[in-house]
Write a structure and sequence with these properties.
This protein has 288 residues and is an alpha/beta fold. 36% of the residues lie in helices and 34% in strands.
Length: 288
């Protein structure tokens, strides 16, 4: 196989997208880890998630918080990159969880010790602006389509496309659980630091994506962002909770990151306030 043939094979995969997004995030001051490994208990083997990116906070700002306060905000992106010639179809639905605007927030302390309402929820309830509050298309059902020609669909290829979506969702959920359990081992009440950990799970798609709505008539439109609703079983609380995964197109990624950055900045300002620190300390004083 020639170098050009190898190159053509690589270009058909999601690897170039993964490298492109990793570089973009580094340029936006994220700490990026590619191909982060985790153990898949279902298949008893090591697997990888494409990108984990942690927000880099100004060191002086972070040290000033830790000098006076013990609660900190630790958001991170989990990204699966996919490229396909299939068309991804999502059927819109109403959110199952009434509090979905709180987002995918997990506080390692209060979840670890069995509190019903986590510190992360207390923090985010006090944030006036949340990107989930915008008019997003929510879906819990999807389909994949691939046409051999203008009239004939290839059902086998379409099924492989659906499996690609399912695999991406599964990897996100499994890695989140793996990460939560491992990180929770480092956070003990005796430490002078209590992190509110927030995940932004993302499936980044280099391809065409459509939303289908059927309120009165069937309407289909091209979209760049779907909020996919599913569930996650927490190995810390032993509860099943709603989980929201942002499925976005490559073209929308930069705008999406800007929206997340605005939210994170608000959260950092909130967690630095004496009001929120006092609220969290009082609510969870029995832990310490």
């Amino acid at each position: 196989m020639s170098i050009d043939e190898i190159k053509n094979v690589i270009l058909k995969t999601g690897f170039p997208l993964e490298l492109e997004i990793s570089n973009l995030l580094r340029n936006k001051n994220f700490e990026v880890i590619c191909n982060q490994m985790y153990f898949d208990e279902d298949f008893s083997k090591i697997r990888e998630i494409d990108i984990e990116a942690v927000f880099n906070v100004d060191e002086k700002y972070y040290n000033s918080i830790l000098s006076d306060h013990i609660w900190t905000f630790n958001p991170r992106l989990l990204i699966e990159c996919k490229k396909s010639i299939d068309k991804w179809i999502f059927f819109e639905s109403n959110p199952v969880a009434g509090w979905f605007n709180i987002g995918n927030s997990i506080d390692l302390f209060t979840q670890k010790y069995g509190y019903e309402n986590s510190a992360s929820e207390e923090l985010l309830k006090n944030i006036n602006s949340h990107y989930y509050d915008t008019n997003l298309k929510i879906s819990s059902t999807f389909y994949s389509m691939f046409f051999k020609n203008k009239k004939e669909q290839d059902d086998n290829q379409a099924e492989r496309g659906k499996d690609l979506i399912l695999d991406s969702i599964s990897k996100i959920i499994k890695y989140m659980n793996y990460s939560i359990v491992n990180l929770s081992q480092y956070f003990q009440p005796i430490n002078n630091r209590r992190d509110i950990l927030m995940y932004y799970p993302i499936i980044l798609f280099d391809g065409e994506m459509y939303s289908v709505n059927y309120e009165k008539n069937l309407t289909i439109e091209k979209t760049n962002h779907i909020l996919y609703e599913t569930k996650i079983f927490s190995k810390l609380t032993k509860n099943t909770e709603p989980l929201y995964i942002d499925i976005i197109t490559k073209e929308f990624f930069t705008e999406f990151i800007e929206n997340i950055n605005k939210e994170v900045q608000i959260a950092h300002e909130m967690i630095a306030s004496d009001k929120i620190q006092k609220l969290l300390n009082n609510k969870y004083k029995n832990l310490f």
